[in-house]
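Name: DNA-binding transcriptional regulator, MerR family
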Amino acid sequence: MSYTISEIAEKLGLTASTLRFYDKEGLLPNIDRTASGIRVFSDIDLEWLSMVECLKATGMPIKDIKTFLDWCMEGDTTLRERCDMFHERKRVVETQINELQKTLDTINYKCWYYDAAVAAGTADVHKCMLQEEIPEEIRKLKERSISK
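Structure predicted for DNA-binding transcriptional regulator, MerR family:
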């Protein structure tokens, strides 16, 4: 199947200018064009662009994504480099997830804190609250958020 730049942009939640930028940066080496120069995208291009967006979401710079593309174009001689790159990306994403979990723990604790304060009409409610009155999950959240 073939797609216009607008259709691909909509499918991926990108702008047409982002797709043009990717093309300018050499990230879309196999894009077909009509006789008048209009880009025509295929299902394979859609898959590749999904991979580009995945790598970008990990914080990978465009130049490194371009290197990955070059390795793909080189074929099997670069399998080790590509494998190593994905293992590194995995480590980066796992670190991001851990940091986001700590952030979420803090936010969840603060949601409980302010829900209790709003219900009591004062933030002082926590000053006289016994440790046993604080739900166990909330105590754990507080401990995890403080141990950052």
